[in-house]
């Protein structure tokens, strides 16, 4: 009260305070940056150790296991996983979320350093990297120029990379396909063999010669000189002069004698291309060097992207002479800005809608503005604390600001409503009375305002302390809501009463103003609603048990929705960012050139998709999509960006499926296509299972079983496991006894082979001030053929040559391409995408499948990906949900000083959950982090209604009212603020719930949960909470029966009537509550979730009623009717009235000769002098009434006949359009039936093929058939599936066209009730059909009427030469005055009547017009004759088509029976082993073809019947 009193007595202080807060808020807003999501750190360290030339097994033994053992001793580790690939070891260490990432990285670095010295010789130094959920590059660039490849590579590496790295926020710049140079020393194996030299000798000679040795210093008398022996050279000719070997006789062998030395481009590990769609040119790929720009930890995407773009523009200017050009292939900040813009738009809409609700309820602009002040005051003040806490403007904080709009006005509404009640009750006659009313009104409601605000606040306090990833996600959201809500309470206690005390006014509505009439009408309707609510509340309090049972039933029904499958579960709803990644992985052993060629084939198909805007191709990418893992020459990654969501009709899942369908056509490719989610590449594998075990063979067997089981679960796609890829390998097994005999060691053999094949690249030299690697290895002719490996020459310690095949065995094998471990145990990873179902539902089915498989006990399964994050986040959010309820209860206990009545408020939660869950089910949203966040937010919002009721009821009871009377009075008084505040929040959230822009997938579910919960709470809390309060009050008072005496003893019939009325009203309220949870369909047709049955006759009726073209033609007929009415009225009299006022600024003056009066009384004129006379006064008024009427007008009669003919033409046009549209809809209906029947046939064929596949597999297990038969059966099944998908799409397309023709809503789910059958109708005679067409075709009638219209036009031109006679009359008055004193004016009346005769004499254009009319008549007659002939031919063609289709149907019936018998017999013989699978496949194909032919014949017959009806003009 003191704060409110201070605000009222010292208003300037409050105004200054909020002005300061507003200025600081605006400044804080300008300082905050845009982000997509709050900063979410994940403690994940990757240790990468290259080991050139090593196989996965050697990598696992020599590198992976020692590093695993070392890092496993670090603190707070959650999981250690590792990958052992060819040439590299990758160990991934995941820490618990509360670990400091910097300290964790330092700890891991120390652990790795302890084992670095024990790693095998040849292994590189381990490197450590952090992994982030948002590790994808901020900007992907493509660079090209006019320079050569090597020059461009040097420019990018030496000039461009440093400039980009210096941009603020840039953390790492990586190149894809960067051309680099190296010094190639290609050894001649034949020459080495002839000279008895080994590769190690050559390498040793080069190392010994290419060396700079510091040799001390010399202190001379004048200076000190350092001494350095220079052996390194930057000239290739000097390398050729290096002595490799000197014989005892002194003969030298130079390096140039045994090797070809040249500066060549380094072998590329990647190739990149880009494509940017253009409206002016065909899309094509451009070769370029890819540049991946990653941001630093904590840097802002938008700022980094903008800074990089500015730097690129400057670089293009600086290197314009080199033609350097950059193209942005992908920019991660675009979606961030688009999502932020969409939320800001929703925020503005929410403010506008809340203002409209306030204006409707308060029907006063003054009162609405007083309440709306709370929104800018609270939001601007919130920005201050957001800036101080380091928050960003991201999807969560902006969403919180949008959702909180309705909450911000709650307190001000309640306070202002209380103040106005005080003003009405106490009366306001002076400023002091207004101030007293404001102070007392705030005091009356202050306790309830504090309660509802604190309840909202305490709900979000536990969320702000939530740990883990979900805590990072929702912390900023919850704190923004808390801060803004507390500021709204401050505004309601200061600004609102202060403004009301100055400008508040009790407005009495009258019918004299539009606003008054609206307000009175609204109040009447509200009074009726209030009276109905009071009657319902009385019935509810009388039949309390019925109310409790109904509410309990609704609550239990809602709780069953998730378990029944109506509401799925997942970590996050998939987001449509318009970007996908496509990875094509080819068989192991593919060269980069082969992969590039296949990638170009796919690009040609991909570029032609209309929605593709940008494509960035990375040939040689890592198949797992992680840029931190080694590349793979047999994999290619396509980063595809589509047009924005509002510019395309297809969603991202549909586009991903289309791209995948194109990719599977590439031979030999394993396809993985996934959309990019909010967290980066989180859409790659939402379903992830890690299967671990000690025995790798058992592990592989059980993983294979589990993978097959997962593939059978609906919703899974791209199911694969990590251990099923094997690559070809040459295994060289040395014989230790032979090695010892020839004086060799395994190490020497391995180093020689590695140097010969992979090359020795530890040596460098300078070229153009750049360090260039030297690679020593065999020339390509000696190292790229497997048979040459055994001929590799080794030199032993005695200088004797030994071929490799003399001491080792070379054999080809297929070994795993990757070995995986988890927590120092063997493991394999199963991944899958989720398509069409929430990942949580799929995870539940996987758990059931795991239980049914009964896997080997040694195998353990760990769930990862979205399943793990969902389990973790749901558990934490569930705990926060319970904590919020507990905190709500404790706050209310402290405020009410009672343990019982706060318990009553908690009963508003079940009725709110009912609405929230039903809203999620109806809007087809799942339970995810955002929707659960909405449920938690709902707790505080729905409790406010119950708080207002309970608080008012307690006050009434303190004044001496009984429990029932107190509840009735509380319901009556609190109904208005409850409806106003709840509707403000619900309507304010509608823009978010109906949003379709970027990021809408996350926020719509949250908004629907809130809307559903608030809507059901608004209705059911007003009914259920009073009943609970009654029971609690009776329990406290120790009474067995409650209520007043007059409530008892009602007759049985009256009770039954009351129960029926009560149930009807409750059902009505529930229906109204649910309609708020989902938009009303635009038509009376059921929404798309309910199938709409449609027969062919019903479709025809809908065309007649709703088809657009038919309605246009019908309007044309109505227009012709209006023209007839117009021509009839042309013969009636016309009356025109005119009124004219004229102001004479300069009146006309006439000059007359001067005259004088003579003595005799006459006049004497003096022509030498002129006297001016003014001819008009200043003001002149004219008024008149004119009447005209044609007496003789021959053209009117012809015009009436023309209008009648025009009416008949319009009616025939309507018939023609109707017949055409009916024929089209019938053919479209039949086409849809044909597609459905063909789908049934294909489904049957698939069933038969799958049955054959199962039988073949059984026979294969029994070794009765070959694997070729199994593959053929499998291919037969898979070849049929695309046809099934194509038919499904065709049916959807045809149904969409049916909806257009029938005028049904686009979301209607059609269910065709007719079937494609053969109606054996009687044969129609040809002559009768043609005669019927002559009489029924509207086109012929239109042409006949056209002939009549031409005749009438000729008559019209002729009668225009006849005389016409018109009667006319006029009455009028004219007056002039020098002033506006009309009483001094005279108004003389003038009237006349007359006849007007018009006689045409000469009109040169009449004769040509008559000639034109005659020619038009002849033209119409010729057209009529030609059309009759064409229609007769059309009827004959339809009859011929009908007869031909009838003959085909009869013939195909026997063919189908024969094909069925053939298939049955062939199948039986195949089961007995008497025939081959090919015969069975051919029989099935013949059966399917026969059935298809018969179905096509029936379709052709039905279409021919429709065409015949159309040709005859008898379409029904």
From TrEMBL:
<feature type="transmembrane region" description="Helical">
    <location>
        <begin position="342"/>
        <end position="362"/>
    </location>
</feature>
<feature type="transmembrane region" description="Helical">
    <location>
        <begin position="903"/>
        <end position="923"/>
    </location>
</feature>
<feature type="transmembrane region" description="Helical">
    <location>
        <begin position="12"/>
        <end position="30"/>
    </location>
</feature>
<keyword id="KW-0472">Membrane</keyword>
<feature type="transmembrane region" description="Helical">
    <location>
        <begin position="1058"/>
        <end position="1077"/>
    </location>
</feature>
<dbReference type="Pfam" id="PF00873">
    <property type="entry name" value="ACR_tran"/>
</dbReference>
<dbReference type="InterPro" id="IPR003423">
    <property type="entry name" value="OMP_efflux"/>
</dbReference>
<keyword id="KW-0812">Transmembrane</keyword>
<feature type="transmembrane region" description="Helical">
    <location>
        <begin position="548"/>
        <end position="567"/>
    </location>
</feature>
<feature type="transmembrane region" description="Helical">
    <location>
        <begin position="477"/>
        <end position="495"/>
    </location>
</feature>
<protein>
    <submittedName>
        <fullName>Efflux RND transporter permease subunit</fullName>
    </submittedName>
</protein>
<feature type="domain" description="SSD">
    <location>
        <begin position="368"/>
        <end position="502"/>
    </location>
</feature>
<dbReference type="GO" id="GO:0015562">
    <property type="term" value="F:efflux transmembrane transporter activity"/>
</dbReference>
<feature type="transmembrane region" description="Helical">
    <location>
        <begin position="395"/>
        <end position="416"/>
    </location>
</feature>
<dbReference type="GO" id="GO:0042910">
    <property type="term" value="F:xenobiotic transmembrane transporter activity"/>
</dbReference>
<feature type="transmembrane region" description="Helical">
    <location>
        <begin position="445"/>
        <end position="465"/>
    </location>
</feature>
<keyword id="KW-1133">Transmembrane helix</keyword>
<feature type="transmembrane region" description="Helical">
    <location>
        <begin position="1006"/>
        <end position="1032"/>
    </location>
</feature>
<feature type="transmembrane region" description="Helical">
    <location>
        <begin position="369"/>
        <end position="389"/>
    </location>
</feature>
<dbReference type="Pfam" id="PF02321">
    <property type="entry name" value="OEP"/>
</dbReference>
<dbReference type="InterPro" id="IPR000731">
    <property type="entry name" value="SSD"/>
</dbReference>
<feature type="transmembrane region" description="Helical">
    <location>
        <begin position="978"/>
        <end position="1000"/>
    </location>
</feature>
<dbReference type="InterPro" id="IPR001036">
    <property type="entry name" value="Acrflvin-R"/>
</dbReference>
<feature type="transmembrane region" description="Helical">
    <location>
        <begin position="877"/>
        <end position="896"/>
    </location>
</feature>
<dbReference type="GO" id="GO:0005886">
    <property type="term" value="C:plasma membrane"/>
</dbReference>
<feature type="transmembrane region" description="Helical">
    <location>
        <begin position="929"/>
        <end position="950"/>
    </location>
</feature>
<comment type="similarity">
    <text>Belongs to the outer membrane factor (OMF) (TC 1.B.17) family.</text>
</comment>
<dbReference type="InterPro" id="IPR027463">
    <property type="entry name" value="AcrB_DN_DC_subdom"/>
</dbReference>
């Amino acid at each position: 009260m003191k704060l409110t009193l201070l605000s009222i007595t010292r208003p300037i202080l409050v105004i200054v305070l909020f002005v300061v807060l507003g200025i600081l808020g605006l400044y804080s807003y300008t300082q905050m940056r845009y982000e997509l999501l709050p900063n979410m750190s994940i403690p994940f360290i990757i240790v990468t150790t290259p080991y050139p030339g090593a196989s996965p097994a050697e990598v696992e033994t020599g590198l992976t296991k020692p590093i695993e053992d070392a890092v496993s001793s670090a603190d707070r580790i959650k999981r250690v996983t590792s990958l052992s690939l060819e040439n590299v070891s990758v160990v991934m260490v995941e820490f618990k979320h509360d670990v400091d990432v910097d300290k964790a990285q330092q700890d891991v670095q120390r652990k790795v350093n302890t084992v670095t010295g024990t790693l095998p010789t040849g292994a590189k130094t381990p490197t450590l990297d952090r992994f982030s959920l948002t590790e994808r590059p901020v900007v992907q660039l493509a660079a090209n120029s006019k320079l050569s490849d090597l020059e461009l590579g040097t420019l990018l590496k030496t000039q461009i990379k440093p400039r980009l790295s210096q941009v603020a926020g840039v953390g790492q710049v990586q190149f894809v396909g960067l051309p680099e140079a190296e010094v190639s020393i290609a050894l001649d194996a034949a020459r080495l063999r002839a000279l008895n030299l080994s590769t190690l000798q050559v390498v040793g000679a080069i190392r010994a010669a290419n060396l700079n040795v510091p040799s001390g210093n010399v202190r001379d008398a004048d200076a000190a000189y350092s001494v350095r022996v220079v052996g390194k050279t930057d000239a290739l000719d000097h390398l050729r002069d290096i002595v490799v070997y000197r014989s005892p006789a002194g003969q030298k062998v130079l390096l140039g004698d045994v090797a070809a030395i040249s500066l060549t481009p380094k072998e590329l590990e990647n190739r990149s291309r880009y494509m940017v769609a253009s409206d002016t040119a065909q899309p094509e790929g451009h070769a370029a060097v890819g540049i991946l720009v990653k941001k630093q930890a904590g840097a802002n995407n938008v700022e980094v992207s903008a800074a990089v773009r500015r730097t690129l523009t400057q670089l293009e200017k600086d290197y314009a002479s080199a033609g350097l050009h950059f193209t942005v292939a992908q920019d991660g900040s675009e979606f961030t800005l688009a999502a932020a813009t969409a939320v800001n738009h929703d925020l503005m809409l929410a403010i506008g809608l809340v203002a409209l609700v306030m204006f409707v309820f308060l029907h006063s602009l003054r009162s609405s503005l007083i309440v709306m002040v709370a929104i800018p005051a609270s939001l601007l003040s919130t920005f201050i604390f957001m800036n101080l806490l380091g928050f960003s403007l991201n999807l969560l904080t902006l969403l919180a600001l949008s959702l909180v709009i309705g909450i911000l006005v709650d307190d001000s509404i309640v306070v202002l409503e209380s103040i106005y009640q005080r003003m009405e009750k106490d009366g306001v006659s002076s400023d002091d009375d207004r101030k007293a009313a404001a102070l007392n009104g705030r005091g009356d409601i202050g306790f309830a305002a504090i309660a509802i605000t604190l309840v909202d606040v305490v709900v979000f306090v536990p969320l702000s302390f939530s740990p883990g990833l979900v805590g990072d996600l929702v912390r900023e959201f919850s704190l923004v809501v808390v801060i803004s809500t507390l500021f709204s309470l401050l505004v309601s206690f200061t600004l609102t009463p202060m403004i009301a005390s100055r400008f508040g006014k009790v407005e009495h509505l009258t019918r004299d103003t539009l606003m008054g009439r609206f307000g009175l009408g609204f109040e009447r309707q509200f009074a009726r609603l209030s009276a109905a609510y009071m009657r319902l509340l009385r019935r509810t309090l009388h039949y309390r048990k019925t109310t409790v049972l109904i509410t309990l039933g609704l609550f239990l029904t809602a709780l069953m929705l998730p378990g029944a499958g109506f509401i799925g579960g997942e970590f996050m709803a998939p987001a449509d960012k318009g970007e996908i990644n496509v990875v094509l992985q080819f068989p192991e052993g593919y060269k980069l050139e082969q992969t590039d060629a296949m990638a170009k084939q796919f690009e040609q198909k991909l570029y032609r998709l209309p929605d593709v805007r940008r494509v960035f191709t990375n040939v040689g990418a890592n198949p797992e999509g992680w840029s931190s893992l080694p590349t793979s020459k047999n994999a290619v990654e396509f980063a595809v960006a589509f047009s924005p969501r509002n510019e395309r009709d297809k969603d991202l899942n549909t586009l991903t499926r289309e791209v995948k369908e194109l990719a599977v056509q590439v031979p030999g490719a394993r396809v993985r296509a996934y959309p990019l989610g909010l967290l980066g590449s989180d859409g790659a594998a939402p379903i992830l299972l890690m299967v671990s075990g000690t025995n790798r063979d058992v592990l592989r067997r059980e993983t294979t079983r589990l993978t097959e089981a997962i593939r059978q679960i609906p919703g899974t796609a791209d199911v694969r496991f990590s251990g099923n890829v094997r690559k070809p390998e040459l295994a060289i097994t040395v014989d230790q006894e032979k090695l010892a005999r020839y004086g060799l060691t395994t190490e020497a053999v391995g180093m020689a082979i590695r140097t010969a094949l992979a090359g020795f690249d530890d040596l460098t030299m300078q070229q153009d001030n750049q360090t260039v690697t030297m690679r020593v290895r065999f020339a390509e002719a000696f190292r790229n053929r497997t048979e040459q490996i055994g001929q590799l020459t080794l030199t032993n310690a005695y200088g004797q040559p030994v071929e490799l095949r003399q001491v080792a065995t070379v054999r080809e094998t297929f070994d795993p391409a990757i070995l995986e471990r988890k927590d120092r145990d063997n493991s394999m990873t199963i991944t899958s995408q989720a398509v069409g179902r929430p990942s949580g539902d799929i995870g539940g089915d996987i758990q059931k499948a795991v239980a049914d498989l009964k896997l080997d006990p040694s195998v353990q399964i760990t769930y990862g990906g979205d399943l793990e994050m969902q389990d973790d986040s749901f558990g934490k959010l569930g705990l926060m949900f319970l904590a919020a309820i507990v905190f709500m209860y404790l706050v209310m206990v402290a405020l009410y000083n009672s343990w019982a009545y706060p318990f009553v408020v908690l009963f508003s939660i079940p009725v709110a959950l009912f609405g929230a869950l039903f809203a999620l089910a109806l809007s087809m949203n799942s339970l995810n982090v955002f929707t659960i966040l909405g449920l938690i937010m709902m707790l505080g919002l729905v409790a406010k209604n119950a708080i207002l009721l309970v608080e008012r009821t307690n006050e009434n009871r303190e004044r001496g009212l009984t429990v029932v009377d107190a509840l009735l009075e509380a319901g009556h008084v609190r109904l208005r603020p409850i409806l106003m505040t709840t509707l403000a929040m619900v309507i304010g959230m509608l823009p978010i719930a109906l949003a379709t822009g970027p990021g809408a997938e996350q926020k719509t579910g949250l908004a629907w949960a809130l809307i559903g919960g608030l809507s059901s709470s608004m209705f059911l809390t007003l009914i259920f909470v009073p009943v609970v309060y009654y029971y609690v009050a009776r329990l406290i008072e120790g009474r067995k029966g409650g209520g007043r005496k007059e409530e008892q003893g009602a007759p049985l019939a009256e009770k039954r009537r009351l129960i029926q009325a009560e149930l009807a009203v409750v059902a009505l309220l529930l229906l109204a509550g649910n309609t708020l949870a989902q938009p009303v369909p635009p038509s009376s047709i059921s929404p798309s979730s309910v199938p709409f049955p449609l027969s062919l006759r019903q479709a025809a009726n809908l065309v007649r009623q709703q088809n657009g073209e038919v309605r246009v033609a019908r309007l044309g007929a109505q227009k012709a009717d209006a023209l007839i009415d117009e021509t009839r009225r042309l013969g009636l009299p016309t009356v025109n009235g005119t009124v004219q006022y004229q102001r004479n600024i300069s009146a006309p003056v006439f000059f007359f000769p001067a005259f004088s009066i003579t003595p005799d009384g006459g006049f004497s004129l003096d022509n030498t002098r002129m006297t001016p006379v003014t001819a008009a006064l200043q003001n002149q008024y004219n008024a008149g009434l004119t009447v005209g009427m044609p007496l003789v007008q021959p053209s009117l009669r012809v015009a009436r006949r023309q209008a009648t003919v025009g009416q008949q033409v319009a009616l025939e046009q309507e018939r023609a359009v109707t017949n055409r549209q009916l024929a089209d809809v019938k053919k479209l209906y039949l086409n849809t039936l044909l597609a459905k029947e063909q789908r049934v046939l294909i489904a049957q064929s698939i069933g038969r093929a799958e049955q054959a596949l199962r039988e073949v597999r059984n026979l294969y297990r029994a070794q009765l058939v070959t694997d070729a038969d199994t593959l053929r059966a499998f291919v037969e099944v898979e070849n049929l599936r695309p046809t099934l998908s194509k038919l499904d799409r065709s049916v959807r397309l045809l149904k969409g066209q049916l909806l257009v023709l029938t005028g049904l809503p686009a979301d209607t789910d059609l269910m065709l009730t007719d079937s494609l059958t053969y109606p054996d109708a009687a044969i129609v005679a040809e002559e009768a059909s043609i005669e019927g067409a002559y009489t029924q075709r509207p086109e012929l009638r239109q042409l006949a009427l056209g002939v009549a219209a031409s005749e009438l036009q000729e008559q019209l031109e002729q009668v225009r030469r006849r005389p016409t006679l018109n009667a006319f009359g006029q009455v009028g008055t004219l007056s002039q005055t020098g002033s506006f004193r009309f009483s001094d004016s005279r108004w003389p009346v003038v009237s006349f009547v007359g006849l007007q005769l018009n006689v045409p004499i000469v009109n040169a254009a009449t004769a040509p017009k008559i000639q034109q009319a005659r020619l038009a008549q002849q033209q119409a007659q010729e057209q009529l004759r030609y059309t009759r002939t064409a229609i007769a031919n059309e009827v004959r063609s339809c009859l011929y088509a009908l007869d031909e289709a009838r003959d085909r149907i009869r013939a195909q019936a026997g063919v189908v029976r024969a094909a069925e018998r053939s298939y049955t017999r062939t199948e039986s013989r195949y089961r007995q082993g008497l025939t081959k699978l090919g015969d069975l496949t051919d029989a099935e194909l013949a059966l399917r073809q026969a059935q298809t032919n018969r179905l096509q014949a029936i379709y052709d017959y039905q279409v021919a019947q429709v065409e015949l009806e159309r040709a005859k003009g008898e379409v029904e």
